[in-house]
């Protein structure tokens, strides 16, 4: 049925009506009577307010059965007798789905479960709203009417507001008996096991801390409304001051980030918001509950909106309400907060700069809501070796700050309040992980040569100065891919030549003579900087990015080349250009480099003693002409992440097409083999820097198609060296040759079996 926004047929609803209702609820809760009588009084108050024939409260028992605890309108003998299983009947469905449900013809609904003892035969309309707290359904509030009528938007809103309060009261101990409140508490603190996506491997144990801490616990009703109003006023003044301060101290912010802050300011000063908060306080709520209350009303209103912009504003309003709650309780925000000795940070999203603000000794792992593997916060987390899991969207709702948490960055597991056996299991796994790291470190000087004597060069990928110490720690022979765009994406403005030069210099110093291949900024695609206008490209991954941007608008690449030339003065400069499709682009980009060399000479600046120019092969067009391109440069590197994306026409970041993006596909491997052979006939060295080599089976397959030089994330250098030493390159090549025309979708199972049979270390 549709939820129409019409005025209710009777007076007393809307904001005004809710205020009256809340007052009556406060009086009911304050009655010195038994818990059951108090509950009955509440159902009566609610029923009369929304003009319902029936108002019932079902509460969830520890065995997940929903029991009728109180009713106004159903037969009394049904109380504590009528029970529904989780998901059973309309009530069970509301609980299971976590969301309200309305129907004007309940008996006709396929999920309807008839309970004769309730005497509900003549009832037609049904409105059920879950009582949700900390992400868990504690019960269901049900409104029923004899007539087959449609509930108005205002009625639904009022019932939702009441349900929010009921859940809060149930958890606070103001409603139920001591034992029942304890049972609710136990339910809220049950262990939870969630499945997300492992983005940075490793196991982390610690206590949960939220990037935006949740609202602290508080009383629902207050005795002195005037005092609460004064607290509210003070909280609002503090909030406004802090938002103003945020805007002044981020004066350089532009684009979306700036917009977000301005919206915050608009909301913080909004008269209507303040009036509604005050009205809620004068109805008898504490300032904190008033904030919750108005937040729930906004939520009910805005979440129905078809306008995505308005729905998005809901997050801003929620964030602002949470900030106000923290001002009311005097708690600190974000990065200034004290961390536990071992902390797991939870956030819906976060930027790489925010991550860098946290104390690295105490921060052990990250749980983020909506972040992909190639996002910048993920790249920074990898550099910091912080295990990270994403995609478990309700993780924050099911967790409370201070809860014990374990994350498994390999399997994508998140355990909240794990039982002691699980904790023990992960401690062992973590120890094993550290032992393996120690083993890899002890093997860092062993030659990376296959059993049949083929030498494999191992370099590592980097993007921050923070990565460089891993060169020494892993024994990698250099940095085969330094993603310079990170510096451009992390900051709020274009980095100056001096800033760029200083980063490159620092990287070269830390590399201590080992080569560092600087890949010029690959901005565009999914990597957009807040201060850049890319227009509205429908398909940014295939849009104006990488070298295309560089040759069309040299204003950004030329200062970068200047910084690189200067940073590598008197050394060898390795510079690599991304996202080539046409051989002509190689000439264009080289002439830009020549212009900068001339400029440096004219200005009497020092220059590198040698310059090695390379390009990335990351489009099928470039792979097809790889031999021609190879003749124009000193080295090539296959960017397998992008090359596979364009070979399969499957977005590297899309979950849905992951199955179709398979580097173990026989066609893709034979395509690589031809590319490698084509290039090797020219004598130009070629490496592979796509992150697929993090997987041992794929890495072995790449050796099988002739790749002899790799650049991979630091964490995989150790395992990769072990793998290389356990392989027979000739055997693998022969296997690959034999299976290159196989029509099966993936060679993974058969090749894995082959590797295991031949004693390769693939796990
Ligand atoms: C690639 O595409 O394989 C690559 C290494 O570049 P990036 O992941 O930065 O796009
Ligand atoms: Mg790429």
Structure summary:
With 763 residues, the chain is α/β, with parallel strands linked by helices.
What descriptors fit this protein?
alpha/beta, Beta-Lactamase, Glucose Oxidase, domain 1, Enzyme I, Chain A, domain 2, 4 domains, 8-stranded mixed β-sheet, 27 helices, 22 strands, 44% helix, 15% strand, elongated, binds magnesium ion, metal-binding, transferase, cytoplasm, transport, kinase
Describe the structure.
This protein starts with 13 loop residues before the first helix and ends in a 6-residue tail after the last helix. It folds into 4 domains: 31-188, Beta-Lactamase (2-Layer Sandwich); 192-211 and 338-435, 3-Layer(bba) Sandwich (Glucose Oxidase, domain 1); 225-328, PtsI, HPr-binding domain (Enzyme I, Chain A, domain 2); 455-757, Alpha-Beta Barrel (TIM Barrel). The protein is elongated. Strand 10, helix 11 (352-356) and strand 11 form a beta-alpha-beta unit. Residues 1-14 and 253-257 have low confidence and may be disordered. By secondary structure, the chain is α/β, with parallel strands linked by helices. The strands form 3 sheets. The chain has an 8-stranded mixed beta sheet. An 8-stranded parallel beta sheet has the order 21-20-19-18-17-16-15-22. Helix 7 (255-268) crosses helix 10 and helix 8 packs across helix 9. Helices cover 44% and strands 15% of the residues. It binds phosphoenolpyruvate and magnesium ion (MG). Its EC number is 2.7.3.9. Its cofactor is Mg(2+). Pfam families: GAF (PF01590), PEP-utilisers_N (PF05524), PEP-utilizers (PF00391), PEP-utilizers_C (PF02896). GO terms for molecular function: phosphoenolpyruvate-protein phosphotransferase activity. This is phosphoenolpyruvate--protein phosphotransferase.
């Amino acid at each position: 049925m549709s939820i129409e926004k019409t005025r209710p047929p009777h007076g007393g609803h809307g904001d005004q009506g809710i205020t009256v209702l809340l007052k009556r609820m406060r009086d009911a809760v304050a009655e010195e009577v038994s818990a059951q009588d108090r509950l009955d009084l509440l159902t009566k108050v609610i029923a009369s307010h929304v003009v319902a024939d029936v108002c019932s409260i079902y509460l969830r028992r520890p065995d997940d059965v929903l029991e009728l605890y109180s009713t106004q309108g159903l037969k009394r003998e049904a109380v504590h007798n009528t029970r529904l299983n989780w998901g059973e009947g309309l009530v069970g469905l509301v609980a299971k789905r976590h969301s309200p449900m309305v129907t004007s013809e309940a008996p006709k609904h396929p999920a309807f479960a008839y309970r004769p003892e309730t005497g509900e035969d003549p009832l037609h309309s049904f409105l059920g709203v879950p009582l949700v707290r900390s992400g868990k359904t504690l019960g269901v509030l049900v409104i029923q009417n004899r007539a087959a009528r449609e509930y108005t938007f205002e009625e639904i809103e009022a019932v939702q507001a009441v349900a929010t309060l009921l859940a809060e009261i149930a958890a606070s101990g103001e409603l139920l008996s001591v034992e029942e409140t304890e049972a609710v508490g136990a339910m809220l603190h049950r262990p939870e096991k969630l499945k997300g996506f492992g983005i940075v491997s490793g196991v982390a144990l610690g206590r949960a801390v939220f990037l935006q801490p949740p609202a602290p616990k508080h009383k629902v009703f207050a005795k002195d409304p005037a005092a609460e109003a004064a607290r509210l006023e003070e909280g609002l003044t503090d909030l406004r001051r802090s938002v103003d301060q945020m805007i002044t101290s981020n004066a350089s912010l532009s684009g979306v980030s700036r917009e977000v802050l301005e919206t915050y300011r608009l909301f913080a000063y909004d008269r209507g918001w303040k009036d509604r908060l005050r009205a809620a306080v004068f109805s008898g709520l504490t300032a904190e509950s008033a904030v919750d209350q108005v937040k729930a009303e906004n939520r009910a209103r805005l979440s129905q909106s078809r306008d995505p912009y308005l729905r998005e504003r809901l997050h801003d309003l929620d964030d602002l309400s949470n900030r106000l709650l923290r001002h009311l309780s005097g708690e600190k925000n974000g990065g200034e907060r004290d961390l536990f000795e071992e902390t797991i940070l939870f956030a819906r999203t976060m930027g790489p700069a925010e991550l860098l603000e946290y104390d690295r000794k105490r921060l052990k792992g990250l749980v983020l809501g909506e972040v992909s593997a190639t996002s910048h916060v993920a790249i920074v987390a990898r550099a910091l070796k912080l295990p990270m899991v994403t995609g478990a969207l309700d993780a924050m709702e099911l967790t409370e700050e201070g809860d014990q948490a374990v994350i498994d960055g390999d399997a994508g597991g998140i355990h909240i309040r794990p039982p002691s056996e699980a904790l023990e299991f992960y401690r062992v796994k973590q120890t094993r992980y550290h032992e393996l790291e120690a083993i890899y470190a002890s093997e860092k000087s062993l030659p990376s040569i296959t059993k049949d004597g083929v030498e494999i060069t191992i370099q590592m990928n980097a993007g921050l100065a923070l990565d460089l110490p891993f060169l020494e720690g892993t024994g990698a022979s250099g940095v085969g891919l330094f993603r310079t765009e990170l510096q451009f994406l992390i900051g709020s403005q274009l980095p100056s030549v001096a800033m760029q030069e200083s980063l490159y210099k620092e990287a070269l110093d830390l590399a201590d003579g080992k080569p560092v291949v600087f890949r010029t900024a690959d901005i565009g695609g999914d990597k957009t900087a807040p201060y850049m206008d890319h227009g509205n490209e429908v398909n940014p991954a295939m849009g104006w990015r990488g070298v295309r941007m560089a040759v069309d608008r040299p204003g950004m690449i030329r200062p970068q080349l200047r910084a690189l030339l200067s940073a590598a003065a008197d050394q060898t400069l390795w510079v690599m250009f991304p996202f080539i499709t046409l051989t002509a682009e190689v000439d264009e980009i080289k002439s830009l480099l020549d212009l900068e060399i001339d400029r440096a000479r004219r200005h009497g600046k020092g220059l590198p003693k040698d310059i090695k120019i390379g390009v990335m092969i990351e489009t099928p067009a470039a792979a097809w002409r790889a031999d021609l391109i190879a003749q124009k440069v000193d080295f090539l590197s296959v960017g397998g992440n992008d090359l596979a994306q364009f070979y399969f026409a499957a977005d590297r970041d899309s979950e849905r097409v992951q199955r179709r993006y398979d580097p173990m596909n026989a066609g893709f491997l034979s395509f690589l083999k031809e590319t490698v052979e084509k290039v090797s006939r020219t004598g130009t060295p070629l490496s592979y820097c796509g992150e697929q080599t993090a997987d041992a089976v794929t890495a072995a397959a790449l050796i099988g198609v002739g790749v002899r030089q790799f650049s991979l994330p630091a964490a995989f250098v150790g395992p990769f060296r072990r793998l290389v030493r356990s392989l027979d390159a000739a055997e693998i090549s022969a296997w690959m040759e034999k299976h290159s025309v196989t029509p099966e979708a993936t060679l993974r199972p058969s090749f894995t079996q082959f590797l295991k049979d031949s004693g390769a270390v693939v796990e």
